[in-house]
Design goal:
The protein is built from 3 helices and 9 strands; from the N terminus they run βααββββββββα. By secondary structure, it is of the alpha+beta class. α1 packs antiparallel against α2.
C-alpha cells in the first residue's frame, strides 16, 4: 500500500484563500486596537458585521487548509482510498474505477479519477456549471505528490491498466511513463 499526500501547490492555493479573508480582517482589528473609537450602536454594526463576516471567512479557510493538509490517497492491490479528513473518505475497488480524465481547469493541468458510486449521490446545477456528480465520486489525482512524476500513474497502471491505456484524454496529458 502506497500513500500519496497533497502537493505543496494544493496547500498554497488554500493559503491564498486564507490571505483573501485574513488580511482584511487583521487590518480592521488592528485599526480598532490602535484607534480608540467610542462604540455606539450604529458604529458597532458598521464595524462589527464586516469583522464578523471576515472572521467567519478566516475560520472557513483555516478549516479548508486543515482538510488539504490531511488529504491523502492510498493505493493498493485491492483498490484506492481517498481520505479528506474530516469531511469524506472514498474507498473503492478497481472494478468501480470508471475512467481517468485529464484536462485544463483555471490554467492548470488536472487529472481526475471517476469512481462509480454504489448509490446515487447529489448534484447541483448552477447555470452552465455542475457541482457534484450523482453517479461518480471524483478523486483529484493531480493534487497529490506522486502524479506529476508518474509514480502514482505507474502504480495505477499496475493494478488497473484499462484506466491508463496510453492515450491522451482531453487537452491534458498523462504523465510520461516511459522511464518506469
Amino acid at each position: 500500500m502506497t500513500t500519496y499526500k497533497a502537493t505543496s501547490g494544493a496547500v498554497f492555493r488554500s493559503l491564498g484563500w486564507l490571505a483573501l479573508f485574513g488580511l482584511p480582517a487583521a487590518t480592521v482589528v488592528a485599526l480598532l486596537l490602535v484607534i480608540p473609537v467610542p462604540m455606539s450602536g450604529a458604529l458597532f454594526f458598521l464595524i462589527g458585521i464586516p469583522v464578523f463576516i471576515l472572521g467567519a471567512g478566516v475560520a472557513l479557510c483555516l478549516f479548508l487548509l486543515v482538510t488539504v493538509l490531511y488529504h491523502c490517497v492510498r493505493i493498493s492491490e485491492s483498490g484506492i482510498a481517498c481520505h479528506r479528513w474530516p469531511l469524506k473518505t472514498i474507498q473503492a475497488g478497481w472494478e468501480q474505477a470508471e475512467r481517468i480524465q485529464c484536462g485544463r481547469f483555471l490554467n492548470r493541468n488536472k487529472a481526475r479519477l471517476y469512481i462509480r458510486r454504489r448509490e446515487p449521490g447529489y448534484e447541483f446545477k448552477l447555470g452552465p456549471w455542475m457541482l457534484g456528480s450523482a453517479a461518480f465520486d471524483i478523486v483529484p489525482l493531480s493534487d497529490f505528490s506522486g502524479w506529476k512524476d508518474g509514480r502514482m500513474a505507474a502504480e495505477i497502471r499496475k493494478y488497473a491498466p484499462r484506466l491508463l491505456s496510453g492515450q491522451e484524454i482531453g487537452k491534458g496529458k498523462l504523465p510520461d511513463l516511459s522511464r518506469n
